[in-house]
Write a structure and sequence with these properties.
CATH class of the largest domain: Alpha Beta
Number of helices: 18
CATH superfamily of the largest domain: ANL, N-terminal domain
CATH architecture of the largest domain: 3-Layer(aba) Sandwich
Distance between the termini: 64 Å
Helix content: 25-40%
CATH topology of the largest domain: Rossmann fold
Radius of gyration: 24 Å
Largest sheet: 6 strands, mixed
Strand content: 25-35%
Number of domains: 3
């Protein structure tokens, strides 16, 4: 057996800012230890602040407890929690020791958690708080963490430690997303990949020391890690919004005001109920200087309304996939031009490049012509967990220089160039469907629907029935206006018919109170279809 160094040696070689996520995000603990690192809702209902020195101390305490379990570099740890100080500290403690963390939501169904555990084969399952998750394998170590520290309920099975330290190429986390096979797909990110992304976006200057960044994404959604990394990596403050306040517009805004938040990150749909029920309160906010959105397109009528209410706030369009954390962050013009049809996703972040490729593998360079986005970046994922076939389909040889050995990410996203070379996202390769023999891009129909003054947002789904021809169904949220109240299915179909061919017209038009979302903040198309009478 390889002789093992004492824990202190392994700990020291893992915390270098240059090669470990923990070192990079806690660098401010050495320069501004008393600066606020995290602000959150306290158990007594007020707010509590963790300085960088306090957060580092909490990370070290968790890391010491984990290190005593004898886990080797590379062994996985599932972390079940909402976004909070203890969760951030546990994730960074795992990163310190080279234990890839697998974040999951507390309300994740047991069956899906079982699939993730079966795939990741973790050594340890940690959860925030005192509730114990059932139906876990007897072979899996379990524990709890929180204000009282780390408590191990069932120790993981010991094994030999064959690694002495953590390298930049080691996995730092695995995010499980929806897979086309029906099983969750694990995206593996390394320390080097995550730090390459964070250093690249840091150069864009969207976050600075003194900023307070509110994150609204659940912990298992990769953009919550983007939010945390952008804030802590710049010496700023991360502010997790409590899940039970996010869904109540006035409570949400009260929390942002109380925490003195300067920017908010999240999917566009978090603003819809605010715009409907609390526009005056939103417009009265003075500290809010920037809104970063990602995960889905921002309906243009809602974005215009948001910009009108917050004319001094900058809106930033975040584009990218879990496989690269993100690819670009692009400021939307302020004020929004009347002629704007969709905001640009701009150019890749510093250190990366997005190119367009046609179906024959040729470069698409001329403006207006659609191609698939290929991403060159040092921030690419290392692969899909235990799925070499899917990895080989996504990480492909450079189509322009295949002999070089360079690997690029084939995103599956479609875009076209604007007159200055900037990119405009226009759908997914896999969102192209066949309707009566015609190829249809669902995003094109959705954009047309959202141009109707009575429609706030729209999702179009191909409804495939066993006993009938597939049809297009549109699910619409009415605008909060007289036009919205007057909108009818017939009027919307007629509006679409003015520009779209007959085979692209929605067969069914359904008005809904809101668009249901998946745990990752995307439109839940299955849930929408489930409500359609058969």
């Amino acid at each position: 057996m390889t002789p093992q160094p004492p824990p202190s040696v392994r700990f020291a070689c893992a915390t270098d800012e240059n090669d470990n996520l923990r070192g990079y995000l806690l660098a401010a603990a050495a320069t501004t230890p008393d600066a606020p690192a995290l602000v959150e809702r306290a158990p007594d209902g007020g707010l509590r602040t963790f300085t960088y020195a306090q957060l580092e101390s909490l990370v070290d305490a968790y890391a010491d407890g984990l290190d005593r379990l004898g886990l080797d570099v590379g062994e996985r740890v599932v972390v079940q929690s909402h976004h909070c100080s203890s969760a951030v500290a546990v994730l960074l403690a795992c990163a310190t020791l080279g234990l890839p963390f697998v974040p999951v939501a507390p309300d994740l169904p047991d069956e899906r958690l079982a699939l993730i555990v079966d795939s990741a084969r973790p050594a340890l399952f940690l959860q925030f708080g005192d509730d114990v998750r059932g139906r876990l394998p007897d072979t899996l170590g379990t524990g709890r963490f929180g204000d009282g520290g780390l408590r191990i309920d069932r120790s993981p099975r010991p094994g030999p430690r064959v690694r002495n330290g953590v390298t930049p190429t080691d996995p730092v986390y695995i995010i499980f997303t929806s897979g086309t096979t029906g099983r969750p797909k694990g995206v593996v990110m390394t320390h080097r990949g995550v730090l390459a992304f964070l250093r690249g976006v840091r150069r864009l200057g969207f976050v600075a020391p003194g900023d307070r960044v509110a994150t609204t994404s659940p912990l298992q959604f990769d953009f919550s890690l983007v939010d945390t990394g952008m804030a802590l990596g710049c010496g700023a403050t991360i502010v997790p919004v409590p899940r039970d306040e996010l869904g109540w517009p006035r409570r949400f805004l009260d929390f942002l005001t109380e925490a003195d938040v300067s920017q908010v990150h999240g999917v566009p749909s978090i603003w819809r109920p605010v715009l409907r029920t609390a526009p005056a309160e939103l417009g009265a906010m003075r500290s809010l200087r920037r809104i970063v959105y990602s995960g889905e397109e921002f309906p243009l009528p809602e974005m215009r309304r948001l910009s009108e209410l917050l004319p001094r706030a900058q809106i930033v369009n975040g584009y990218g996939a879990t496989e690269s954390m993100a690819a670009s962050l692009t400021a939307v013009p302020t004020p929004l031009p009347d002629t704007l049809e969709r905001p640009s996703i701009g150019w890749a972040h510093p250190g990366a490049e997005m190119t367009l490729v046609d179906a024959a593998g040729r470069a698409v360079t001329e403006p207006g012509r659609t191609g698939e986005i290929y991403l060159r970046s040092p921030a690419l994922f290392s692969g899909y967990w235990n799925d070499p076939e899917a990895t080989a389909a996504a990480l492909v040889p450079d189509p322009f220089q295949p002999a070089s050995g360079q690997i690029v990410f084939r995103t599956g996203d479609l875009a076209y160039r604007g007159p200055q070379g900037e990119l405009y996202f226009c759908g997914r390769v896999d969102s192209q469907v066949q309707v009566r023999g015609n190829r249809v891009e669902l995003g094109e129909i959705e954009r047309r629907l959202q141009q109707h003054e009575g429609v706030a947002s729209a999702v179009v789904v191909l409804d495939e029935r066993d006993d009938a021809e597939p049809v297009l169904s549109a699910f619409l949220v009415r605008a909060d206006s007289a036009a919205g109240q007057a909108a009818t299915a017939a009027a919307v179909r007629a509006f679409c018919a003015a520009t779209l061919p007959s085979y692209m017209l929605p067969h069914g038009v359904h008005f809904v109170g809101d668009i249901p979302l998946t745990v990752n903040g995307k439109a839940d198309r299955r849930a929408l279809l489930a409500g359609v009478p058969r």
